[in-house]
Amino acid sequence: MRTTLDLPDNLFKAVKTRAVQQGVKLKELLATYIEAGLRAPQIPKKDTSPLKNPHPLPVGIPRILGAPLHPALSNAELQAILEEEDIENYHCVISRSSKTK
């Protein structure tokens, strides 16, 4: 069966070099590597539960020179802020381009 693999250049060069050194075709060497990987013992899945940090960092940072204290934001909240900025920038670009026409 044919398939396409996207490999980093350095990895492809290393595998191709190994195939030449061993005097085998690239597809034969890759098939051997895949078979060996499938026969190897499975790597246990990582625990995805939140890690318990015995020394958590404080959420708040003391105010320095009157700077406002901002609570920690979740990734979703940060993404929403970035998307809002992108939309504002898009509208600015659109309004500028419509004025120049």
Comma- or semicolon-separated keywords:
mainly alpha; 53% helix; 101 residues
- Overall SS class: mainly alpha
Cα distance spanning the termini: 55 Å
Backbone shape: flat
Succession of helices and strands: HHH
Report the sheet-strand fraction: under 5%
The mean pLDDT is: 79
Number of discrete helical segments: 3
Q: What Rg is obtained from the alpha carbons, in whole angstroms?
A: 26 Å
Low-confidence runs: none
**In which range does the helix fraction lie?**
40-55%
Structure report:
- Helix content is 53%, strand content 0%.
- It has helices at 9-22, 26-39, 75-100.
- The mean pLDDT is 79.
Summarize the structure.
This protein is mainly alpha-helical. The chain has a domain at 9-39.
Compile the SSE list and pairings.
Layout: H1 9-22, H2 26-39, H3 75-100
Helix pairs in contact: 1-2
